[in-house]
Structure formats: C-alpha cells, structure tokens
Amino acid sequence: MNAKLKQSSFTRALIGASLALVAMLGTVQAQNLQTQMSQANKAWEQGEYEKCQQLFTRIVTVYGGRAPMLYGPKFGVIWYRKGLCELRLAGVTKRANQLEASGKWFDLAVKSFDTCYTKFPNGAAGMPQTVNGSHKASLQRWAEACMGKAEYEEAVKLYQKFIAERDPERDKILPTPGGFYINLAICHFLMGKPKIQDGIRHFETALKNKDKMRTVDGGIVAAFLALSQAVIQEKNEQALVDFLDKNRADITLEPYQMYEFTPLFMKLAGNSIEAEMYIAAFNLYALIPGTEDVIQDLKVRINRIPDRRGIKDGAKIIEMSRLKKGLEKMEKKQRSGDPDEVNVLSAMSYLHDHAGNQRGVYGALEQLEIYHKKSKKREANLYSLVRVSSLIGEIMKTEHYGTIFLRDFPDAEKVESVRRLMLSSLFFGGEYKKSLEVAEKLIDEVSKGSEQHDICLFVLGGSHFYLGQFEQSQPFLEQHIKEFPESKFVMHSEYFVGSNLTRLQYWEKAAKTLDAFLEKYPEPGKNIYMPNALYDRANCHFSESQYDPAMVILDRLEKEFTNNPVIDMAYNMKGNIFESTAELEEAEKYYMKALEVAEKRANTIVAGEALSYLVGMLGSESAGDKKTPNPRLKDAVHWYDKFMKEYQDSPYKPQVVVYGMVAMKSVDRGQQALDNLQAVITELAGKKRQHFLEECINAYSSAYLEMKGNTPEKLKEFYYNFPGINLANKKTLALLRIAVIGVFEDEIRKAMADKDEELVQRYNSGIKALFKDLKNTFQPKDLTNFVLVRIGDYLREKTSAPKQALPYYEELLSRDDKFGEFKALLGVADVLGRSDSTADNKKAITTLIEVMSRAKDDAQTQETSLFRLIEINAKIGNWADCEKMARKYLDEKYTKKSAEVSYIFAKSFDNRDMANDALFYYGMVYNRYRGFIRISGPSVKRIIEIMWDRNLAAGDTIGQGDKERVLKIGDRQAAYQKIGWPYVTSTKKIRETNKDMTEEEKEIWDEVAALVQQYETSGQVKTMEQVREEERNSRRGGR
Questions:
Q1: Residue 450 pLDDT greater than 50, yes or no
Q2: Is 296 exposed, middle or buried (0-12, 13-18, 19+ CB in 10 A)?
C-alpha cells in the first residue's frame, strides 16, 4: 500500500469514533463535530499534537456534559485520544528538559485516561450500549502517564489491573508486549523502594522474547538504566553484576544506537563510583561504544539509505536526519581530541587502581597515549603512564614514555619527576646499562643539590656497582653520601660503598665502612642489606686471615638469616675457614650444606663454587698438615664427575679441572683429566674474560711434563701449536709462551742445583729467545695484562734498555681491566727512576705516591713503592724526604730491603752534614749487617772518614744534655782501631772465600781495607801492633 494512503491506528480509531458519534447527533451538531474530529486527525498526522489536544479539549468541553447519556461508552475514545496527545506532548517537552510543561501534560493525560476508564465503561447501566474500544487500553496509557509523573507504584497497580481485566482476544498489550514488560520493569526499578528482582523478571521477559514481543532497543536501554539507578540506590551491586553476566549480549545495541545513551551511562557509572560500587561502574563503562566504532557504523547506515528519509529495520525506524546529525556530532568529538572514550579510559584507570590492578591502570593509560594524543589531558595522562609503568616493572616502557614526555612537554611541572621515575625504574628493575646511559645524559642537565641530582648520583654509582665497575662506582657513591645525607637512597649508597671496597679488596677501609653502616642501621627489618653487609664484613675478616671474628658473623648469619639469599655463600665461606684451619671434616660439611641450599634454589654459581672447593680440598695431594699423604684423595673424583656432568657452564670449571688433576691421576684417569684441562684452555682462550687461564696453563704444563716421554722442548712445540686455538688469538698464544718461559725457569733452578752450567746456559738462551719472540711477534694491545707485566718486567730488569718496557706497562694502564695495575705503575716508576733526567725521577716519585695512596691494603706493593721512593729521593738528593720515608719503612717493620733502607737512612743525615746522627745510624747498619758487604762496607767507610775528618782528641766532649759524653780515645785512633781494622779483619775471610761475592762488593771491601791501611801507615795513629804491645805491657805492669 502507498505510504500516503496508510492511516495510523490513531487515525483509524478517530474516524471510527467520529462516525459513530456523528450518527447519534443532529445535522448541524454532526457537521460541527465531524469537522473538529477531522481537524484533530489532520493535526495528529502532521505532528501538531498541541493543536490536536486543543481540538479534543473543545470537543469534551462542548459535548462532555451529556456524553454519557447521548453517546455512552463510545465517547470514552475521545478522552483516550485526548490523553494520547497529552502523553505525546509530555514526552516532547520532557526531552526538551521543559520539566514544568511536561508535568502539566502528564497530569492532563492522567485525567484523560482516568476519565476514559472510569466514566465510560462498557456495558454501564443507564448508557446507550455503545462500545469503548479503548477502555482497557486506557489503563496502560494511564500507567504510562503515572510513570511520567514518577508515580511508579500507581503505574504498577494500573498495569496489574489491565492484566487482570483484559480480554486477550480483544485488548492488545501496549505499546508492544515487549514495551509493556519493559515499562513494568522500569516501574519496579524506580519506585520509592525498588523491587529489583521483580523488575529483573519483567525485564528478562522482554529481553528473552525480544523479537516475538517486538521489544524496542530504546526501551531495553531505558530499562537497564533504571536497573542501574536501582542497584546504586539500594547498593545492591551484585544484582547488576549477575544480570550482566546473564544478559550482556541482549542489552548491547549496535554502536549507532548505543552512543545516544553514552551520557546516561557515564552519569550512572560516575554515580556507581560515588556509591563505591566499582564493579558496577566498570560494567557500565564497558557498555559505552568507541567513537570510531560509532562513526563507522553510522557511515554504513547512511550509505545503505542514500536517497531516503529513513528505513524500518524490524521494530526500529532508522531516520537519515538522525544518522547524519549523530555522525556530525561524533566526528566533532573525535576532532576535539577528547571523545567519550577518553573519559571512559580515565575512569577505567581509576577503577583498576582502586582494585589494586596496576596492570589494568597501565593498559588504560597506554590506550590513552596511543590513540588519544590530542587530548587536553594528555600531559597528565602521559605522566601517570610513566609513573604506573615504573610501579609494575615495565622499565623499558618507563624509559620509552618518559622520553616522549620530556620531548613533548619540556617545560612541564612534572619533568623532574619523570626523570626520577625513568632512572629509579630502570635501576631498580635491574637495567643497569640503560639506567647508567640515562643518568650520564641527565647528570649535567639537572640542578646541583636538587632531588634529580640526588637520584642521578645514586644511579650512576649503583649502576657501576652492579655492572662490576667498582673503580668508577666509588666516587659517585661517596659524592652522593656527602651531598645528600638525608636522601631516601642514602642507605643504599652507604652499603654499596662498603661492599664496593670489598670488591676492590681494600679490606681495612671496607671493614671500617661496613662497621659504621651496621652500627647506623642495626635493625634487620629496616635494613634490607643487613645480611649482605654482614657477609661482606665477614669476608673482610676472612681475607685478612681473621678467622675468629669472621666465624662470629657467619654464625650469626646462619642463626638469624637462614633463608636469606646469601646463606649458601656464607656456608662456603665457613667451609673456607675450616679448611684454612685444617678442620677438614667441618669444611666438608659446610661445603655440602652450601651445595644443598644452592641446588634447591637453582643457584648454579654458588653450587659450582661449592663443588670446586670440595674437589680442591679432597683432591689435595697432602692432608691438612701438608706433610702426610691425603687418604681421601680419590673421594674428590665423585665431586669432580658431578661437576663435569651437571655444571659444565659454571665459571668454576677451570678451578675444578686444575684442582682435580691429582685425584684423577690417582684413579688412572690422568689422560682424561689432561684432556679436560686442554679443553678448558681452549674454551677460555675464546672468551673475553680469561679468568684462571694462567693457572690452567701452568697446571697443564706440570701434568704434561709428568707424562712419560714428555720434555720442556716438546711442551714448547705443543704450545706453539695448541689444538683449537686460532693463530689470531694473540693473547692466549702469548700466555702459552710465557708458560714455556716459566717451565724453562724451573729447569734452570734444577740445573743450578745440579751445577749443570751447560743446561743453565741453554735454558737462559731459550728464555731470551722466547722474550725476543714475544716482543717481535705480538703488539702490546694483543696481550693479556699478565703477559704485559711479564714482558715489561723482563725488558726492565734483564736488558740494557729498560725504557723498552714502558709501552707494555702503558698499554695495561690504558685498559678498564685493572689486573696488574700496581705492578705496571711500579714498573713505570722504576724505569723513570732509573733515568738520568731529574724530571723523569720526579714523575716516578709522583707515580709511587699514587700507588701507595691507592694500594693501602696491599702490604707488598706498599713496601716496594716505599723502597723505590726512598731510592729515587736519595738519587736526586731529596734527603729530608728520604729520611721521612726511610723512617716510615723501618717503623712499619718491613724487612725485604731493611738493610738498604737503613743505609740510605744513615746516608740522609750524612748528606745534610749531620755528622753525629750519621755516625750513629751508620754504626747501627754495619753492626747489624756486617756480613752484607754491599751495605756494611760503605757504612764503615763513611764512619771512619767522618771520624778522621772530625779529629776530636781524647778528653773532648760530644753530644748535648743527657747524651753528652767524654771521648776516651781520639777520633782517628777510634776510626782505625775500633771500627776500620776490626771490620776488615772480621770480613776478610768472606772476601777471600765467598764465590758468590760480586765484583762490586769486592771493590767496596777493598776500598775500606785500603783506607784502613792508609790510616795505619799515616803515622797519626798507633798501629794495631803498637796497641797490642801497649796492652801486653799494661797486663805485665798489672802483675
């Protein structure tokens, strides 16, 4: 049928009613009524509802008084139609937010429907027997008007009355069966005391029979919103959650429909949050469609009906104008940068935060950053994203989004906070290389003394610490502690400083620092580093062979921190101490405890370490007393095999194959052990860090030479062509040649013991050739630190051009790897100290002072450095400094060069014309070291020279105060008789018979003897013959 010819149910009913009424009137009245009815019909069709209502009002006013008697129940239809107009007008004004007007229309509608139902019932006595076709329907419309007035209890009663009275064959459910149950549901939800379950029952009836009952989508959403209001009012969150779990699919509309309800969903979700119904709020936000989804859906609908005003889709009417208006609105929102989902995602992040789901918060914030970069709230959202990513450990994301924040908002208030978050997140997340990289960029940008400077210093020091760069770490940590004593990170830095010193093996300083740390932070509950600090402190004691105090700390760790990660390392250290004190059973017990704990925790490093100790202790050739054979030697093989089977990748593999060599030979598996050792050498050769390679090579050398038929010469040939080592691997090839030199040096010592001069000469020639080969074949940059020192020392000590050693030392000193650093510095200082240039000598002194200041825990380096300082200061005539340093050497009770230092000490007074002091100290030297001709000879010579030149006579006084004394014999006589002659006489045999005496020593002795002879023949002293004769005469006279 043509749409223009179609008539609405309202029109059809109105025409039917007018025909019936007209038939009951006179001609004039009939014409007038028919005209008004026609006008009302036309007004309705044209949407002029107010005009339509006015016409009906006029009709009921004019004809209503006699209507029951004249027209009977049929006149009720006019009241019903009037009520429909008023109901429609109420809806229009309500949507326009004209609440006063809508209230008026709802009141009029109630009256109209009430009149239709009450005044014009069918079959009423005393009325014409006409039919009111809208009698029961008016109950439903009456209920709708009551709903408009928020009189939901009354509306429910009217609906129930309709159900009770309706004729199923005649009385239709309005507006549709689905709409009827939707309205019932809404009434139950919104009445003063909501009946949520009853409302849900009606709601679900409409939902489950959606197509059959023609339930419209708008009604579904309205009912759901009413349900949401009810559960918020009643704080019955679970009812909403249960409903959604059961009916979510049925209440979710197409995006082009759903978006119109977004403001209501947003409001209800916000109300849910205010009511602390967070799950309900989450579900409500989840129903809001995305802007892009809505836009695409609207475009699809528009494209389907390009030339039409609208289209009917089932129970829905899709209007083109409404679609276009919606599209324009949504595209405008999208262009603004703040579409609805910005608020939704922001709310979602809040809800996730309240639920403690930081991952959810992060997800919502990341969506905001990825898809809504134009949002007015982007700065705040991006900052929150940086903050939350750091909280959940997404450290690389923190760095990524932090960088974006700093780039896009360089002047933001939160810039410094973002920098802190980036650094702290990266650092505490274990990304030490990245945190170091970021901190190094920021340190020059942040303000000195600021919170940002605080964390930058901390991260720089801490990152270097965890990366094992202990030298670089220390100054940053110390600066952090000094400049930020109140920092929240200061406890971390204070521990790192102490622990760092243990890594650098500055044991004394580390001990003091750790003691101060433990005293400052004595509570384990507040000091997260307590077990680690205790372990480090025990390590200081252990490294200084202070076993008892170390054991006290380790016992405490075992008692109080059994479950701490350091306990397996503590067990290993206890094993070390027991082994060092020859308590081997206890040592074995603790090594096995360490192994057990480490294996339970899958700590392969400590487990491998424990096994290496077991192999090393049990695999020793001798027992604890180092004298008797080890009865448990073969027991080491079990642990050796376990290690080689289960811990092949352990860094302790080199130690195991070295320590287990003897034990493996004891069970006739020497070749297997040698093969393992060879494989480890090859394996280490391919690594950047070749820890323990030298020991492996030395062990291989010894084991190889013990094999029948092998010789040092064969070993040299084998090492020059070591299997699996590429010719480009210069470092390892050089180390192998150094090992051959070590073997040749051992052979020289054996040959010297056997007095085989020919063999000594042969191996010396071999060593010289090997060093020459090393120097010509390998560049310093290709060599390990160990080899650099060996070659440098050889060139410095064994050649006539010691400056050739400098490139080798300098190469080592240029590296980050500081192994052998002090030896290289000492080598450089020695070379410069030998120079004829005073400038070089002074550089040597500066270098030695640096070594002494840094190597405070290395007694040998301290002694060597101090001795060379004494020698070089003496060389350039710095006698005052020489005295101070010599006194320090002697006070520290160093012994290696005590004779030479004592001589130089005496010489320092001599060269400053302090004759009495010089005589005193020279005298001490020659009396203490008389047989050491190189020292005692020059001392005696200077004593007698000084005394000869001073020439005090007997009876003269020397000294002052308490030290004043009268000479009983003159200086010259004393120099000859008491010093010179006795010295020459007592050491003459050494001069004549000692084959090891050097030419230099012989020359010194000869000079002293000649000077004594000169004095004897000078005529100025009594000769020893004369002295003896006087003594004989004196004895005779005494008789």
A1: yes
A2: middle
Please state, in angstroms and rounded to a whole number, the distance separating the CA atoms of residues 291 and 337. Answer: 11
Among 170, 177, 257, smallest CA distance to 214 is for 177
Contacts 24+ apart (CB under 8 A), 387-394: 387/417, 387/421, 388/358, 388/361, 388/362, 389/362, 389/425, 390/421, 390/422, 390/424, 390/425, 391/358, 392/358, 392/359, 392/362, 393/425, 393/429, 394/362
State how beta strands 957-958 and 310-313 pair.
unpaired
| 8 A C-beta contact, residue 341 and residue 288 | yes
Look at residue 943 in the predicted model and tell me its pLDDT: 95
User: How far is the C-alpha of 281 from the C-alpha of 181, rounded, in Å?
Assistant: 26
Phi/psi at 958 (5° precision): -130, 160
How far apart, in whole angstroms, are the C-alpha atoms of residue 583 and residue 605?
25
Percent of the chain past pLDDT 90, that is, above it, reads: 49
Q: Give the burial string for 8-46 (b: 16+ CB within 10 Å, else e).
A: eebeebbeebbebbbebbeeeeeebbbebbebbbebbee
Domain-wise residue ranges, the chain: 7-174, 290-336, 925-1038
Contact 830, 875 (CB under 8 A): no
280/244 Cα distance (integer angstroms): 9
Q: What is the pLDDT of residue 794?
A: 86
Q: Tell me the pLDDT tens digit for each residue of 786-797.
A: 889 988 888 888
Report which of residues 646 and 858 the model is more confident about: 646
**pLDDT band of 259, cuts 50, 70, 90:** low
Residues 686 and 697: their CA atoms lie apart, in Å, by 14
Report in angstroms the alpha-carbon separations of 898 from 149, 893, 929.
113, 8, 10
Q: Compute the average pLDDT of residues 216-222.
A: 84
Q: How far apart are CA 366 and CA 346, in angstroms?
A: 11
C-alpha 1016/C-alpha 976 separation (Å) is 7
Residue 49 has pLDDT above 80, yes or no: yes
Which of 680-689, 819-828, 944-953 has the lowest average pLDDT? 680-689
Beta strand residue intervals within 187-279, DSSP E: none
- Residue reference for tokens 């009917």: 312
Cα separation, 532 vs 522, whole angstroms: 13
Is residue 29 predicted with pLDDT exceeding 70?
no
Residue 864 has pLDDT above 80, yes or no: yes
Contact 971, 977 (CB under 8 A): no
Helix-then-strand count for the chain, H and E:
53, 4
pLDDT band at 245 (very low <50, low <70, confident <90, very high): confident
Given this model, what pLDDT does residue 900 score? 95
3-state secondary structure of 235: coil
The CATH number given to 7-174 is 1.25.40.10
Indicate the residue type of 70.
Answer: L
In this prediction the pTM is 0.56
Of the chain, the end-to-end C-alpha distance in Å amounts to 175
Please tell me the number of Cα atoms within 13 Å of 517 on its side-chain side: 29
SS3 315: coil
Residue with the bigger pLDDT between 379 and 946: it is 946
- CA nearest neighbour of 159 among 104, 200, 199: 199
CB of 905 closer than 8 Å to CB of 890: yes
Q: Record the tokens describing residue 659, joined without a space.
A: 């320590």
Residue 787 identity (one-letter amino acid)? V
Pairing of strands 316-319, 965-966: unpaired
Rg, Å, the chain Cα set: 53
Please check the confidence at residue 15 and state whether its pLDDT lies above 50.
Answer: no
Note the pLDDT of residue 557. 95
**DSSP code at position 940:** H
Do residues 421 and 387 lie in contact, with contact meaning Cβ atoms separated by under 8 Å? Answer: yes
